[in-house]
Amino acid sequence: MIGYIDCSFSNLDRRFQLNKDAxxxxxxxxxxxxxxLAERLSSTGKFIITFLYAASIVFGLAGNSIAxxxxxxxKAGNRITNxxxxxxxxxxxxxxxxxxTVNLLLLHVGPRWIGxxxxxxxxxxxxxxxxxxxxxxxxxxxxxxxxRFFAVVYPMKARAFRLKIKMVTxxxxxxxxxxxxxxxxxxxxxxxxxxFYCSLWFPPLDNMTSLQIxxxxxxIFFYCTPLLILMVLYTLMSRKLWKRRIPGNVTEERHKSSExxxxxxxxxxxxxxxxxxxxxxxxxxxxxxxxFRTTDVYPKVPMEIKRLFYWIGYFNSCVNPCLYVLLNRxxxxxxxxxxxxxxxxxxxxxxxxSKIHSLSSANEPALVALEPCRLVGFTARSERVCAPS
Length: 389
What we know:
By secondary structure, the chain is of the alpha+beta class. It is 65% helix and 9% strand. The protein contains eleven helices and eight strands. The strands form three sheets. Strands 1, 4, 5 and 6 form a four-stranded antiparallel beta sheet that branches. The chain has a two-stranded antiparallel sheet with strand order 2-3. The two termini are 31 Å apart. GO terms for molecular function: G protein-coupled receptor activity. Belongs to the G-protein coupled receptor 1 family. Its main location: membrane.
């Protein structure tokens, strides 16, 4: 996203040039003011940044691929949940492929590109795809949150919303693509001293005013608004869950299990909100400094801090599979079923087979749960109390 690019102008007296690199490296001009070069990192800093990005790419590819596999095979979760998880995983996978991977390569080779028609088209496609992925991921998170809100707070209206959820999800992708169109149009190929660069050379994002407006749109619609929605919806959901009581006479053991499950779900809801707010906040702080305090504050910020702050935002796409797949009852159970087949993994991690928990629902398969050696596991009944599907 434009908001997660650290860049500088090669010459303020000529056409604005913005070069995107892997770690949001600032670009400087040569003595002739025509060639834009990536700022060099210290060997230690470059190694750390490379490691963080490489590890995140592996983690993101693995986590989101597993989420896609679960969704496509439909062996866990219901149809609507599978569809939402699939769309979220695809968006996060695009972040991993087009944003983190390309940025890692640019860290070492700079913003150089290939020339010709293919180079120009590939330049636009790569950066347009990267620009679509982040808002699409955030938008799908909003759809998931609204779906859970109706299921918990207004269950009678949940069915009506789910009938429209395909259109809502499609609208999220369309809006994200529309947001990224100016970015794709502005990118192109320019040749300087026989070297081709893929950069922001063209309108509408070829001046500082346009970039400031574009960033404000990014900040309002893809950080402030989603964060406000998450806080309101999950607060209402937490209140509803906490006040919910099991009907009829219940044993003390079942009541205790229900209270523990409520706390687990509420902690999960809080975690989703906190992760979103914390992971993207450093990027937006740096972006504000970049576009509104360009001359006085921005040059004083160490390059390693800039790169670290932007990486934290990208890493959110690696964390999403853990939050929305592992915290989901059906997906978590299916993953445990898969892990128990790998005996070497279980032995290495200190896990072993426990007794088979027969689920109370007739249409759900029996679960062979994995429990740590301390034998502190979950029960089938406790997993079914108040947990969002």
